[in-house]
Amino acid sequence: MEDSSGKTASSHLHVSVVVAVSILFLIITLTIASYCSTRSRQMRLRSDQYPTIEGGPVSSTVVVMEEAVLERFPKVLYSEAKLIRNELGNNNYSTCSVCLGDYRESDEVRILLPGCGHAFHLNCVDSWLRLRPTCPLCRHQLHSLSTSPI
Question: Which positions, given as ranges, span the membrane (predicted)?
Answer without folding.
Answer: 12-36
